[in-house]
Design a protein that fits this description.
The chain is mostly helical and 65 residues long. 45% of the residues lie in helices and 6% in strands. A two-stranded antiparallel sheet has the order 1-2.
Length: 65
């Protein structure tokens, strides 16, 4: 498990955040993933790549009703 070191006066690096539109046009995600993102992401919010990947993983793990 990795630990982040906290140094006085230095803030930890923040991951860049992207809008839903930016994520849907990114080459990083496959077409199926983009369909999932279109359904689960909020139009007004910004998301990091790690957060988006986590949300896709959670969505794909859910059982179909």
């Amino acid at each position: 498990m990795s630990e982040e070191r906290v140094v006085k006066g230095v803030e930890p690096k923040k991951e860049p955040a992207y809008s839903k539109t930016q994520l849907l046009t990114a080459k990083r995600f496959e077409r199926v993933d983009k369909d999932v993102l279109a359904a689960i992401l909020d139009d007004e919010a910004k998301y990091s790549i790690a957060e988006v990947e986590k949300r896709i993983k959670i969505f794909n793990a859910k059982e179909a009703k």
